[in-house]
Every structure is written in C-alpha cells, then in structure tokens.
TrEMBL record:
Keywords: Membrane, Transmembrane, Transmembrane helix
Domain of life of the source: Eukaryota
Spans through the membrane: 37-57, 64-90, 102-121, 141-163
Main location: membrane
Subcellular location(s) of the protein: Membrane
Signal peptide: none
GO cellular component: membrane
PANTHER family per UniProt: SERPENTINE RECEPTOR, CLASS E (EPSILON)-RELATED
Native species: Caenorhabditis tropicalis
Membrane-topology annotation of the record: Multi-pass membrane protein
Pfam families reported in the protein's UniProt record: Sre
Name of the protein in question: Serpentine receptor class gamma
Length: 165
C-alpha cells in the first residue's frame, strides 16, 4: 500500500546519519562529503564540456543529439540535487530541511531517466531504419518529441511509484 507520510517513503540516496552519530564518525563523514564535493566540482566541469560538445558539434543526427541532451539534463538534475543534499548535510539548518525530500524526489526521477534511457535510443534508431529514405537528411523533430512524450510520463510514474509504494 502506498504511504502518505514522508517518513515512510523510499529514496535511492539516503544515508543514515544517526548511525554515524552513534559511532562518533561525524569527522570521517564530513571529510568524505568534502571529497564528494571536490569530485562533484570535477564532474560539473566534465558535464559542461560534454554539453557544449552536444550543442555545438554536430556529430550525430539531430534527434539522437536531442535525446543525448535529454540524458545530459538528467545528469545535471541529479548532480544539482546531490549538491543540495551535501550542502544541507555539511551545514545543517532547520530552515532548509524541507529541501531534502524535494532534492531526493528530483534525484530519484533523474536516476529513473538514466535507467530507462537505453530503450529510447533503440526506438529512435528503429524509426531511423523505418524512414531510411530521408531520415538522415531531414530533422523529423517529431520523432524525438514523440519518444520523449511517451518516455517522461513513464519515468515520472515509475519514480513516484518507487518512492511512495
């Protein structure tokens, strides 16, 4: 049965800090969080460069590039959510505690996008084979929009069902 209480929901990115406090490992945990911040900063640089390449260097068909940009957007949302969670863990503030469930929802949805992304590339390539006469010469943006209009409701429904049920 689905839970209405936020305390009973499942998130993919949960760390039990009460155990860390009970074992007096707060300093080790804070050092690990700071290392994670450094790795996230490096990841941001890598992401921005990759996103730049996807936008300005046309190495693939437009629809395939559009789907890869969608995948990059999921990575951006996931990283941003993780940065928010790490900030709240490093600098606890009672006024910011409402942000953690929201960031976890966004991160879980983004992780479901990452888990479900491979079949949409296959569907796009199958449609490219079906329209083989003129697909590579024309954009046919409706193909990627149709795929994403089916994909995103499925992802959001799956992520919310995972969290709540």
């Amino acid at each position: 049965m689905c839970s209405e209480n936020i305390a009973h929901v499942r998130f993919m990115t949960f760390i039990n800090t009460s155990f860390i406090e009970a074992e007096n490992l707060e300093n080790v945990f804070n050092v690990l969080l700071k290392v994670e911040v450094a790795l996230l900063a490096l990841s941001w640089i890598e992401f921005l460069y990759t996103f730049y390449l996807l936008i300005f260097i046309r190495a693939m068909h437009f629809n395939l590039t559009f789907l890869f940009i969608n995948y990059g957007g999921q990575y951006f949302g996931s990283m941003l959510s993780r940065c928010i969670i790490v900030y709240v863990q490093l600098y606890p503030d009672k006024n910011l505690e409402y942000i953690i469930p929201l960031a976890n929802y966004v991160r879980t949805v983004c992780l479901f996008i990452a888990m479900y992304i491979l079949p949409i590339f296959m569907v796009e390539r199958c449609l490219a084979s079906f329209f083989v006469k003129n697909y590579e010469k024309s954009r046919k943006i409706w193909v990627s929009l149709m795929i994403l209009s089916i994909f995103h409701p499925l992802v959001f429904a799956s992520a919310i069902a995972y969290i709540q049920c």
